[in-house]
């Protein structure tokens, strides 16, 4: 098999969603400190991190969209191990809305059909173009409500995108979140390396979340797996 890592690297002060807590990572106890405390026997280094449940590459729990939605600890793990395809939307301009027509055209060019009960990953090229500059937090294109409805009609359980939000910044993005709750789908944000999936056909997609009690989302290690002889 071949595994393609679709997850952003996490490090101290990596870009976080505007208005959310920063991602903090540091040393809790160094090798030298632990060695001295153990009586010069063994030095076990321990690090710590602090981050929002929507930090880095992550999945939104339906609870994020509204109180009636399920929290991440109750989100079906079956939805985190599904078939997927990637659509090439790199021609869409920064901050532009991705429409149903854009998705239909990209789906026709894809080398495999959209899998029922699976996922669709949207490669806009935004991460490759802008990360880690300030534009990464603001200039992404994204789906509008009509495109979100189109995706739901394909029978998917979620979709993913290579930016911090599923829709373009502003009201449209908020409406897309609202639509996801109403349509009973969710989405994944801050994916990367989607360019490696274009034209490669169907793959197995894994995006297991942490079991945060009542969490509204979770960081994930998202990967695409291709069976190769």
Protein described:
- With 229 residues, this protein is α/β, with parallel strands linked by helices.
- The protein has two domains: 18-51, no CATH class; 58-226, Glucose Oxidase, domain 1 (3-Layer(bba) Sandwich), CATH 3.50.30.
- Helices cover 19% and strands 24% of the residues.
- The protein is built from five helices and 13 strands.
- The strands form three sheets. A nine-stranded mixed beta sheet has the order 1-13-11-5-7-9-10-4-12.
- The longest helix has 13 residues, at 171-183.
State the helicity in percent bands: 10-25%
- Summed up, the helix count is 5
Widest β-sheet, arrangement of strands: 1-13-11-5-7-9-10-4-12
Count of strand segments: 13
Order of helices and strands: EEHEEEEHEHEHEHEEEE
Which CATH class of the largest domain is shown?
Alpha Beta
Tell me the Rg in angstroms.
19 Å
Write the CATH homologous superfamily of the largest domain.
Putative cyclase
CATH topology group of the largest domain: Glucose Oxidase, domain 1
The total domain count is 2
The overall pLDDT average reads 96
